[in-house]
Write a structure and sequence with these properties.
Blueprint: H1 3-15, H2 20-37, H3 50-59, H4 65-84, H5 111-123, H6 128-143, H7 147-151, E1 158-159, E2 164-169, E3 173-178, H8 181-192, H9 212-218, H10 232-238, H11 257-262
Antiparallel strand pairs: 1-2, 2-3
Helix pairs in contact: 1-2, 2-4, 3-4, 5-6, 6-8
């Protein structure tokens, strides 16, 4: 019933500079909404009621609380678009309350735990990919980057001389970070053996930009301890508001002595 309107809305979103992730969410949730409407008596847009929206958000295909939240946000934007184009008189989706999401206590790494992780990756820093993984773990812990920001980094974003790193955060917001000297020294060695002078900072074995799945594999090393079954990246990201700048207790055992010296 809403196929044409959904297509026009998605085109509007692209022109309005919504992010690719947002447009993907809109597409999924509106297709669900269109599917839901087929089970109702509503025969046109003007016959869609507030009760229809509430039933869709809360009950259709037994959604999780996060999906409910995404559906409400999508309906807000979609009915705003319909109102702008005179297809509905008011945005009835604005009255739908957002569900409360229970806050969970995140896992944080201590300085000692992070040092253990560094020691593990230092031992593996014998080649290009081992050094790449070490830089990734250091950036996660020292700068607290989001995974998306980490994966989108390019060589041009790094300025070793000034110690600055340009990153693009959630919502396409750019910012510049100051890198600790420890990270700059290891990153400098990594760039020296990097096969490319421009393009992605972190390459896969296929010479392409590293994927999220690869990063997840990197961040789950076979280590002993209580956290061996957790993504290290999740614990480091939870600590992003309090990065580990004072790495004074690191005892390095890297295959390359120069890398070990860089961390002191």
């Amino acid at each position: 019933m809403l196929k044409t309107e959904i297509e026009h809305f998605l085109t509007y979103c692209k022109v309005s500079d919504f992010s690719g992730k947002s447009i993907e969410t809109f597409t999924i949730r509106l297709n669900e909404f269109n599917e839901f409407l087929k089970t109702t008596t509503a025969a046109s847009i003007k016959e869609i009621s507030y009760k229809h929206l509430r039933r869709f958000v809360a009950d259709f295909k037994t959604p999780s609380v996060h999906i409910k939240k995404a559906r409400i946000w999508t309906l807000h934007q979609f009915f705003h678009f319909l109102k702008l184009n005179g297809l509905v008189r008011e945005n009835i989706a604005l009255d739908i309350p957002y569900p409360k999401i229970e806050k969970t206590v995140p896992h944080f790494l201590t300085i000692d735990e992070y040092n253990r992780i560094l020691q593990y990756f230092l031992k593996k820093a014998r080649d290009f990919f081992g050094l790449r993984n070490l830089v990734i773990i250091m950036m996660l812990g020292l700068l607290g980057l989001r995974l998306g920001s980490m994966l989108s980094l390019n060589i041009d974003d790094v300025d070793i001389e000034t110690g600055l790193l340009r990153v693009i955060d959630k919502g396409r917001k750019g910012r510049t970070l100051i890198m600790p000297g420890t990270l700059c020294r290891v990153l400098s060695q990594y760039l020296q053996i990097h096969e490319q002078k421009e393009g992605p900072l972190f390459l896969s074995k296929r010479k392409k930009r590293i994927s999220l799945r690869t990063l997840q594999i990197i961040s789950m090393p076979n280590m002993t301890g209580n956290r061996k079954h957790q993504h290290i990246s999740k614990c480091l990201i939870n600590s992003r508001k309090k990065p580990f700048f004072n790495l004074l207790s690191v005892e390095t055992t890297a295959a390359d002595p120069s890398i070990a010296r860089s961390l002191h």
